[in-house]
Amino acid sequence: MVVFCSGCASLFGKSNHPYTSEHDPRKQPFVVGIADTLAINLWRDPELSTETTVRPDGTITVPLVGEVHAAGKTAAQLTTEIREKVGRYVKDAIVTVAVRQVNSYRFTVAGNVGHPGVFNSPYYVTISEAIALAGGPTHYADSDRMVLVRTDPGGKTRRIPIDYDAILEGDAPQQDIVVLAGDTLYVP
Description:
The protein is α+β, with helices and mostly antiparallel strands. The protein folds into two domains: 2-27 and 104-187, Outer membrane lipoprotein wza domain like (Outer membrane lipoprotein wza fold like), CATH 3.10.560.10; 37-101, wza like fold, CATH 3.30.1950. Helices cover 16% and strands 27% of the residues. The strands form three sheets. It has a five-stranded mixed sheet, covered by helices on one side. The protein has a three-stranded antiparallel sheet with strand order 2-1-5, covered by helices on one side. Strands 3-4 form a two-stranded antiparallel ribbon. A hairpin with a 7-residue loop joins strand 1 and strand 2 (50-53). The chain is elongated and about 60 Å long.
């Protein structure tokens, strides 16, 4: 019996993958992405305030300033940059940048789930939440052998094993990691 169980470690949620070292964006400021909507306010100057959407090239247009690259920056970083640029024209400019709508956080759930597809959420979701958004595993699903396909910033693609059954049973809560934008969760 011991030989059988050692060969079936994934059935019990015991993968060697370092789940706790996976990036958790909830612990850091939100990074603006393509298609996010931003509100830029210039205090006491409403005609220079605007709401804008980050274009596919990662830029936004700001009145008086022109093009500003926004994708990959936090709201605080954009506030500083826009304040400096607006300050060339407006003395003592007070600028705020707020993310009004998150559209850049998209991920895919594919395979044997009720509603496979591309999902968008205004907040970060975990593996179990992503599966719930996709309608849960079908009765054909092999839910103890899911794979999260993730591309690192350097372009390297990784396959992270997920035992959904072990997550639900409480045997592998560390596997219920945050799904990142661009991830694909495959349910065989």
